[in-house]
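Posting for a labmate who doesn't have an account.
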Amino acid sequence: MNTFKYSAIDSRGKRTQGKVTGLAIEDAKRDVKKMGLRILELSQIQGKTTTRKKFTEINLTPPKVKPESMIRFFRQLATMLNAGIQLIDALEILKLQSRLHDKLFAEALSDITRLVRSGVPFSSALKEHKNFFSGMVIPMIRAAEVGGGLDKIIDHIATFIEKEADTKKKIKSATSYPKFVGGFFMLILTGIVFGLLPIFEDIFSDFGATLPVPTQVILASSNLIKNNILLIVVISILVIIGYKTYGKTEKGRLFLDRHLFDIPVAGNFFQRSIMIRFTITLSILMESGVGLIEGLRIAAQTAENTYIDKIVGVICDRIAEGDSFGSQLSQYPEIFPPLESSMISVGEKSGSLNLMLDKVAEFNDQEFSTKVENLSNVLEPAIMGFLGVVATILVLGLYLPIFQMSGAIH
């Protein structure tokens, strides 16, 4: 008997893999089809083999696609669909074209194209490559499959990715100078605390002089770190592992997502970004004829935040009981500020909810862009002020003993 490995699609459109035995490949095909599966690949396993990866081939992090490749893909896909080209034909064209720019992405597109051709929904095919496509992309594609307008939503996805890439560049540019100054200062600080201060300690101990309190505190801190450096490293690693492990649990993920918006400065960035995605997606869905409750549940998935998903679930239940959309949003001002919930309430009462959703998204987009541009104006004074305080403490710790020793000599 021979062993065959298969990759197939079940009745729910989910990809599955397994092994079957048979005298020939025809027997294996027949057995897989009896299980109600649609075969994608079927190959014979040629005995036991051991594959060893080279050290350079080991990836500690999942592969990522360049933002430029992703933007190009969605822009061109939207253009082709708008021109009347079928999805499968457009994917075939883009699969061949992507080989010239990004071979890794081309392999993913090849698999996605094969899945779509076999009858798998586009969103389900994308879900097989979640490391390439963010949690925002898949729900929006699923929304288009529900309400129509795939080309329009894909064009919005390209805009989102483009704006996110541009935002990351602006944030990187705004924080590059503070990072350089902070890193250089920490290097000097390490040299002073671990190199210069111990020398001062030996000199003063030879003179039998009593060190000033600021110097004693600095030296005590330095000795504490030096004597427990291994313990500090181990504790830091355990804290990181514990954080990641806790974040993977349902309760931990909910707690972290809930307090994500409480982070100074960054919390507001997260809130604005989520609101932009949420309101635009909901507006597109409602324009496509999707009901408010169903649209809310789909739009919530674009937030990639379990706390938002839970809130929207509660809001949907209240709306189903007869409450208004705007009044429910006002119950969560940390996520939906009063101005935005009021605008949605007005749109709901006037019958122009889609228009108000677009206005809210536009307002958040402008606020987000302004905050990113002003980020360096906030960071630089804060970091310089902090470094100034640390520098003052160090200067006092270094010079007070010198002044004290000079006074003792005279």
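Reply:
Got it, the structure tokens are right above this. The domain at 2-49 is CATH 3.10.20 (Ubiquitin-like (UB roll)).
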